[in-house]
Amino acid sequence: MKLALLRWLVLCLALLMPPPVLGQEAARLDIGASSLVLEENGWWREPSMELTLTLSRAVPYRAVVVGDPLRLIVDMKGADLSGLRPEDLFGHDSVPAVRWGAFRRGWSRVVIELPGPYAIASAGQQTSSPQAVIRVALEPVDEDEFTPLPSATAALRNLPPPADLPDAAPPPDGLTVVLDPGHGGFDPGAQAGGETEADVVLGFAKELRSALEAQGIKVGMTREEDRFVGLEERMTTARNARADLFLSLHADALPKGQAAGATVYVWNPNANDRAAEQLAMRHDRDDLLSGIDLKGKDDKLAAVMMDFARTDTQPRSENFARFLISRMALQDIGLHDRPVQGAAFSVLKSPDIPSALLELGFITDARDRANLTDPLWRKRMVRILVEAITGWARDERARQANLRD
């Protein structure tokens, strides 16, 4: 009786399931018939955009705009983009970056980094045998009208890492990066699970230095051993090296459940995030321990000059943060819900050098700590940083060339 009932249930399920599609090949992108076209709206407003993706057949798809950093994401089921280069897409150079690749099993993802806040004005798919065309139109919006996906990382989860990352394109000649492993010496930083923040970030910085030097990048370090380095000395090291980028590395601690995942911070003295304030107290206590307090020492003229200098360096710092976060997201690195944040960390205070502070993860979070001590995870993160740094540097050189022209 039970066997007969089981057979009846199986038959019902089989009848309810849609028939399989046999022999259906993956849809291929016709890159020559695809494009990203911008239409100017005047000098006071960002241009309108239209993304056109021409495929060999119709596919299920979705399009969404996310923030931190600003991106248009188009997912397509049953589409194969392998062997195609984003730089061959017409109009790819009109936005900060275009990337694509496998999403999860059976899906591909296209990511367009946006130059400002946008909203999807329309999206649709037209079919004309044998091809299909997906069109997504974007219109610029004001900051207060920008409504991206509530959690930027929600659209980026379940993205499997590739077997190996492609080699980074050569960086511009003469690029210098200064790495700043946080804490050290009598200040071990955060501690959990038998690990100290100072040791973890120093080991990671040395691995990153080797990978960057292999690309021909000149690398300086604020410390190469377990010793204390004051905040002023860290910034002086970067300035003496004539650094193009200053990157401070941390793996901090916050109360349980308050934070997990990688986060990139850039200078913002007006940031009022509670977690950022707690971390600023932890980072900046170093100079207080040495009897140096950097707060409130700038006279009015110096403050004005520093703010003027930051009109150039601050956008470049924020641009690097976007490059880094987008690459971490594409490689399924666990990110904080707000992966790019501002904070008044004194180590980011230098007005003449693009600077960022990367929390690789929080050593007090068990999952983050497992990643931080996993050689394979660190290797993947190193490759991501190399790609982000070289990509950012090429983008900066191109921008500077356009300004000179």
Overview of this structure, please?
GO terms for molecular function: N-acetylmuramoyl-L-alanine amidase activity. It comes from Paracoccus alkanivorans. InterPro entries: AMIN_dom (IPR021731), MurNAc-LAA_cat (IPR002508), N-acetylmuramoyl_amidase_3 (IPR050695). This protein has 405 residues and is an alpha/beta fold. The chain has two domains: 124 residues, Sandwich (Immunoglobulin-like), CATH 2.60.40; 229 residues, Zn-dependent exopeptidases (Aminopeptidase, 3-Layer(aba) Sandwich), CATH 3.40.630. 31% of the residues lie in helices and 26% in strands. The chain is built from seven helices and 18 strands. It has a six-stranded mixed β-sheet, sandwiched between helices. Strands 2-3-10-9 form a four-stranded antiparallel β-sheet, with no helix packed on it. Helix 2 crosses helix 7 and helix 5 packs across helix 7. The termini are far apart. About 17% of the residues have low confidence.
Summarize the structure.
The chain is an alpha/beta fold and 405 residues long. It has 7 helices and 18 strands. About 17% of the residues have low confidence.
Which descriptors apply to this entry?
405 residues; Aminopeptidase; 2 domains; 6-stranded mixed beta sheet; 4-stranded antiparallel beta sheet; 18 strands; 31% helix; globular; N-acetylmuramoyl-L-alanine amidase; signal
